[in-house]
């Protein structure tokens, strides 16, 4: 059996100290529409921390190895790959798992040709965050040019992508919440109109004051229960709140006035990406290629890479991600 180096977890789940490089990991074999990609770099995401601890429900087709986004070169194919890809092609893409490794078997429907203008590290930082932002904005949030958008966790990788997407598609205003003025200024440098520090005040009231009571058309939320009441307050009439996570808890502890759903005609909608089927993810890939890829090539969209690690430094990479101090992607080279 052919083997490779991959990041593994002692005991299958555990703390950061349980991560190690397993040089005896089985090398995957591509089947059906899959390609075998020799990984050059992979991106870290918050779900990786949850999965490492055993708190993330994996889709049935996901391997146990962590990691959903990567860049690399195609080495071989299964029996029925998507047309347009060849052995040796430089690609990046989204997978159900398995990216923390030297090789990954992944559907060709989720691969994108890497433009020469992007480095391996930048390309590996695009798939999960930019596709998630695209999904939240267009497929779930039903965004149209001229609407206003609020991205919670403004300096997170998904929101960094979302700010740029909304700016590139004519948003009337782009707001963020963040934990410091430094992060707010960073978001403004990417195109945010204004930011609100959730640690120093009531961001919802500040946003309403800033918008003369109108509120915001679309809210993209990763916080969950902790912001449920404030989201209803900050949303404009006919507003849409897209829920992508529960970083601030999943149970609302205090009474909440739900009459605002009726009064403002609000929609509150949850979504996920990793549990979606290949057709759904493939449509998002095509939308990303159409909307964003030309802007990566001409430099108007930027992949913000905060720090690059080597695979042997995976514990340090997880420590930095868990610290909530980052403004951009953490990337690991293989």
Automatic annotation (TrEMBL):
A Pfam family it matches: ADH_N
Classification via InterPro entries: ADH-like_C, ADH-like_N, ER, GroES-like_sf, NAD(P)-bd_dom_sf, Quinone_OxRdtase_PIG3
Keywords: NADP, Oxidoreductase
Boundaries of every Enoyl reductase (ER) domain copy: 14-332
GO MF term set: NADPH binding; oxidoreductase activity, acting on NAD(P)H
Origin superkingdom: Eukaryota
Cited PANTHER family: QUINONE OXIDOREDUCTASE PIG3, QUINONE OXIDOREDUCTASE PIG3-RELATED
Protein name: Enoyl reductase (ER) domain-containing protein
Organism listed in the record: Exophiala bonariae
């Amino acid at each position: 059996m052919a083997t490779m180096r991959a990041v593994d977890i002692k005991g299958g789940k555990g703390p950061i100290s349980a991560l190690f490089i397993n040089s005896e990991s089985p090398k995957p074999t591509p089947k059906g529409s899959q390609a075998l990609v020799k990984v050059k770099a992979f991106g870290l995401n918050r779900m990786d921390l949850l999965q490492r601890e055993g708190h993330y429900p994996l889709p049935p087709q996901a391997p146990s190895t962590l990691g959903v986004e990567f860049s690399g070169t195609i080495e071989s194919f299964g029996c029925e790959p998507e047309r347009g890809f060849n052995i040796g092609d430089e690609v990046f893409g989204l997978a159900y798992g398995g990216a923390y490794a030297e090789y990954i078997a992944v559907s060709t429907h989720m691969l994108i040709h890497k433009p020469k203008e992007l480095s391996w590290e930048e390309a590996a930082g695009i798939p999960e965050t930019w596709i998630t932002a695209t999904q939240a904005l267009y497929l779930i949030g039903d965004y149209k040019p001229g609407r206003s958008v609020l991205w919670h966790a403004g300096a997170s990788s998904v929101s960094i992508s979302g700010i740029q997407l909304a700016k590139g598609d004519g948003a009337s205003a782009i707001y963020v919440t963040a934990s410091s003025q430094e992060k707010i200024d960073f978001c403004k440098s990417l195109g945010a109109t204004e930011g609100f520090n959730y640690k120093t005040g009531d961001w919802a009231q500040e946003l309403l004051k800033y918008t003369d009571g109108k509120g915001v058309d679309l809210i993209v939320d990763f916080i969950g229960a902790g912001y449920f009441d404030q989201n209803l307050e900050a949303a404009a009439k006919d507003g849409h709140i897209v829920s992508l996570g529960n970083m601030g808890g999943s149970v609302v502890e205090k009474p909440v006035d739900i009459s605002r759903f009726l009064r403002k005609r609000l929609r509150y909608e949850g979504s996920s990406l990793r549990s979606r089927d290949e057709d759904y993810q493939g449509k998002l890939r095509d939308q990303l290629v159409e909307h964003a890829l030309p802007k990566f090539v001409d430099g108007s969209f930027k992949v913000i890479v905060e720090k690059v690690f080597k695979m042997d430094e995976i514990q340090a990479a997880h420590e930095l991600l868990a610290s909530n101090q980052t403004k951009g992607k953490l990337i690991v080279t293989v």
